[in-house]
Amino acid sequence: MSIERKVDAVVDKVKGKIKEALGQATDDKRTEAEGKVDQAKGGIKENVEKAKDALKDDRSE
């Protein structure tokens, strides 16, 4: 996984956790939901990169 894409995925996850916590603290359901979406987006990006890496590893063997 390229470092840039890994960082991008982690940033999305962290941003999502912050938004979710802020939404919970302020009873803002929309912000809370946006946070959950951002976390999911980060997780998806991370899994896509892991799948790419696995395919590259399989091809090199």
From TrEMBL:
CsbD-like domain segment(s): 6-57
The highest taxon in the source lineage is Bacteria
Q: Which residues cross the membrane?
A: none
Start and end residues of each stretch annotated as Disordered: 26-61
Give the family per the record. Belongs to the UPF0337 (CsbD) family.
Name of the protein this chain belongs to:
CsbD-like protein
Q: Name its species.
A: Actinocrispum wychmicini
Source lineage: Bacteria, Bacillati, Actinomycetota, Actinomycetes, Pseudonocardiales
